[in-house]
Amino acid sequence: SNMMKVAVVGGEGIGPEVTAQSQRVLNWFAVKRGVPMTLREAQYGIIPYLATGKVMPPDTVEAMEEADAILWGATGGPETKEVPAAARKAGSLLGLRSKYDLYANLRPIVAHPALSDSAPLKASVLTGVDFVIIRELTSGIYFGEPRGIETLADGQRRGFNTEQYTTDQIRRVVRAAFELARTRRNKVCSVDKANVLETSVVWREEVIALHAAEFSDVELTHMYVDNAAMQIVREPRQFDVMVTGNIFGDILSDCAAMASGSLGMLPSASLGPVDRFGRRKALYEPVHGSAPDIAGRGIANPLGSILSVAMMLRMTMNRPEDADLLEKAVASALSGGARTADIAEAGAKRLSTQEMGDAVLNALDNVAARE
Ligand code: NAD
Ligand code: IPM
Ligand code: MN
């Protein structure tokens, strides 16, 4: 059947708070637009750990296994210190990315005009910002071996990790970047540290070779990662598609959040390989984490999670018009003045997480009625 299965995993910290709002949005699309889907909620993190000894209990594993798309909230926070490292590792987000080979992590950065007064960067820098970071998500220093902590003969401790990239690991994610660029402004900027790191030398040479062989119609540039961090806040409009490795992409995407106004605004999609039926496993989650400093207060911005639902509608459910509708509704809620604390100007009214969800649902009704 064409019924899409979605596993909803709120997780820890503000994860469940923001995910509750995206779940309302998903329900709206099921009921009001007839998008065929079933939602299965599953627990992750400290709560199931205390009850069962597992952060990712069997029911959650099964829900994700059968799912076409996983809607993920967040993991982490101080209370999770109670979970021993082995139990945490047995059910980690990194393990999930690895298990489903979710190698292509798309993190779109869009500056909403309505936010230019509250954003940390000047409106003149933000106007028109619209780019996508594609972060390699299943290799690099996050997964390279050997890794570990050892005690040296003189009693010092030494922690070590291995940055590594192979031809195939590079080419498949860079291919995704070139293909995405062809649907946009046809520009790819590859970010590396090829002046220092051998992994980056190989990365850059593979990018150049793939470009010459198959994507010479796409404009390709290269940038060192330190300069890229600076250029993202100096002149973010120069970028269309940026492609980079795992750890550089992690750091640059939080940095790029400032080109959208707030980390709470950024969605993401993590995509696996296409199988023989043309399907691919996908996990959708906001870029932010569990935000322990604001968790439990009902004030987190749910828009990063809600915009991840738009990515799910577009990329898993093949509903581009519904994805557009949701993005328009978010823009309309923002231009109508809806603001959580992270995107509010001094003195402006601040909505709760739930009220921001209400604002998006109202905007969905209104935008849908106009169309
Ligand atoms: P964080 O992203 O949780 O928070 C960074 C800052 O941004 C905080 O001040 C927070 O309040 C703010 N913020 C984040 N999301 C927000 C939102 N939706 N609305 C308003 N403000 C928001 O990063 P951190 O504090 O470095 O990490 C906290 C925990 O989250 C750590 O355990 C980390 O490992 C984990 N983490 C998990 C994920 C994930 O699940 N994908 C991602 C990043 C960090
Ligand atoms: C992210 C997070 C994760 C990462 C953490 C929680 C492992 O920061 O999704 O950006 O580093 O990939
Ligand atoms: Mn991160």
TrEMBL record:
Pathway: Amino-acid biosynthesis; L-leucine biosynthesis; L-leucine from 3-methyl-2-oxobutanoate: step 3/4
GO molecular function, one term: NAD binding
Keywords from the UniProt entry: Amino-acid biosynthesis, Branched-chain amino acid biosynthesis, Cytoplasm, Leucine biosynthesis, Magnesium, Manganese, Metal-binding, NAD, Oxidoreductase
InterPro entries (UniProt xref): IsoCit/isopropylmalate_DH_CS (IPR019818), IsoPropMal-DH-like_dom (IPR024084), Isopropylmalate_DH (IPR004429)
Binding site for Mg(2+): 226, 250, 254
The keyword Hydrolase belongs to this UniProt entry's keyword annotation: no
Cofactor: how and how many bound: Binds 1 Mg(2+) or Mn(2+) ion per subunit.
Name used for this protein in its record: 3-isopropylmalate dehydrogenase
